[in-house]
Specification:
This protein is an alpha/beta fold and about 550 residues long. It has 3 domains: about 325 residues, 3-Layer(aba) Sandwich (Rossmann fold); about 70 residues, Luciferase, Domain 3 (Luciferase, domain 3), CATH 2.30.38.10; about 110 residues, GMP Synthetase, Chain A, domain 3 (2-Layer Sandwich). β12, α10 and β13 form a beta-alpha-beta unit. The structure holds adenosine monophosphate. Adenosine monophosphate binds next to β14, β18 and β19.
Length: about 550
Amino acid sequence: MLIGGMQLDQQLVTTALVDHAAREHGAREIVTLWADGVEERSNWSAVHHMARQMAAALVRLGIKKGDRVATLAMNHLHHLVSWYGSAGAGAVLHTVNPRLFDEQLVYIINHAADRVLLFDRQFAPIVERLKPQLPTVEHFIQYDGQGDLGYRLFRDWIAAEDGHFEWLPIDERDACGLCYTSGTTGNPKGVLYQHRTNVLHAYALLQPDVFDMASRSNVLPVVPMFHANAWGLPYGCAAAGAKMVMSATNDAAALWRLIRNEKVTHSAGVPTVWLAMFADMDANGGDYGALKHVVIGGSAAPRAMIERLMLNNIRVAHAWGMTETSPIGTMGAMPHGWDDMSFDQQVDMVAKQGRVPFGVELRTVDDDDVVLPRDGKTSGRLQVRGLWIVQRYFQAEHDAADLDGWFDTGDVAILHPDGVMQITDRAKDVIKSGGEWISSIELENAAMGCPGVAEAAAVGVPHPKWDERPILLVVRKAGSDVSAEQIISHLSGAVAKWWLPDEIKFVDDLPHTATGKLLKRQLRDAYKDYRLASLDAAS
Ligand code: AMP
C-alpha cells in the first residue's frame, strides 16, 4: 500500500471553523436583535473568545465528552457561542424547538438525557412548568434579560473564565449536535450530527450553486437555530467569514429593518416566514434593501412567492432537505442555458427543488423497491445517501438507512434527466383519486398564485367512486373577497381538469407544525370522514 504524502492529523472538527473565522475574519460582525429590542454588535473574534470561556465553564460544571447540553432559544449571539463552546468541551449541543408541545419537550429532553439547559427569558415559563419532569437537567442557565428570575445568567457564568482554554481533543467522528425531527408519526427521533459531517456540509454550503456565500456576504438566517442545524448557516458563515445578522424575534417589521439597516445580502427561511414578510411589506411599504439571494425550503415554495422575489432581482434558491440530511439535500441553482430561458421557464425551474451538491446522491423507487428512471415523468419514493445523511437515529436499535446507505425520505418525487428533483408530495399527503395520484403541493401552489389567496391546503376526502377527491382549504388575504369560482377558474389554467378540487372551503387560518409547515396530519384527521356536498346532491 502506498500512503499519500499529505498531513493525516488534521481533523474535520467544527471548532476549527470558529478558529478560522476568528483568525482570518475576526472583525466581521455578528449582529443580534435581542427579544427586548436591544441591538448588540459583536464579531467572530469575540464569539471565539466567549466560546472558549463557555467550554471552560462547562468543564468546570463537570460536563464530560458526549454529554448533552440543550438550548431552548431563538437566534442570537449567545446561542451561536454555544454551538462552538459546547463542541470545544466535547459536548453535544441539543437544540430544542420551543414551539413543541409540553409532552414532546419532556420526551426529547429526557430521551437526550440533557445535563444543562440554556434558555431564553421568553421561554422561562416553559422551563418553570416542565422543570419537575426533567430529572436529568442539573443546570438551568438563562441566556438574556436580568437575574430577576433567580437563574444564573449566561454572561455571568462565562465571565468567571478567562478564555485561555484549549479545545478538548476531539475526533472528527465524535458527535457534536443533536436535533429531533418534528415527528409526523410516533415519538420524535433524534439525529446525531458528527463534527466531520457538519464540516463537510459547511463546505458544501459555500458553493455558488448552494448558498453562494463569501466573506463579503451579510447573512440573516430567519430559519431558527433549532430547525435542522439552522440549515448549516452558523458553520457555513464561519467558514466563509461572513457577517451574521440574528434576530431573537420573528416579527416581520423587525426583520425588514434588520435586512435594510445591516445590508443583508443572503437570507433563508420557510415559505410561511416569507408570506408574513410580504404581508408586512404590502401593508407598510419598504424595499428589499441589498437582498440578493434568498433560500426557501422546509416546504415547497409557491410559484407566486418565487416570482415576486425574482421580479425584484433576487435569486431564489429552492432547497429541499430534512433534519436527517443535515439538512441540505438539493438546492435550486441557475443551470446551464439559464440566460436563454424565458422568465416563465426560469420560474418553472426554480419551483422545482434543484440538484444535489457533490456528496449527496438521490434515487426514486417504486413500491417494490425497483429503481425508477430519471425521466422527468415517473414519480416514486425518494431515497438519499451521502456524506452528511443519517445512518441511525440516536439510541435506536436499528439503522435508518439500508445496507447500501439509502435512507427512505418519506417524500414522493420525480427526477429529471438533468438531475433536477421535484417533490410532488409527502407519501402520506398524496391524494389518490381513481388509482392516480394528485399532488397536494402542486394544487396548493397553483391556488396561492390566485390573487386574494393568502394560503391554501389540499386534502383528500373519501369518495365512493374515486376513493379520494381533493378539497381545498383557503385563507383569504386581508380585505379580499375572492370567491370559490374565481379560484377554480384560476386553477383551470394551471392543473389537469381531474385535479380540480371538488370543494373550496374558506377558513380563518391553517394549522402549522413547530417548524412552520402545514400540519397536514391534523387536517387529514379533521376531514377523514368529510362528506362532499356533491354526493348528497347526487343521491
Ligand atoms: P424537517 O426534517 O422537519 O425539516 O422536514 C423534512 C421534510 O420537509 C421533507 O422530508 C419534505 O417533506 C419537506 N420539505 C423540505 N423542503 C422541501 C421543499 N423545498 N419542498 C417540499 N417539501 C420540502
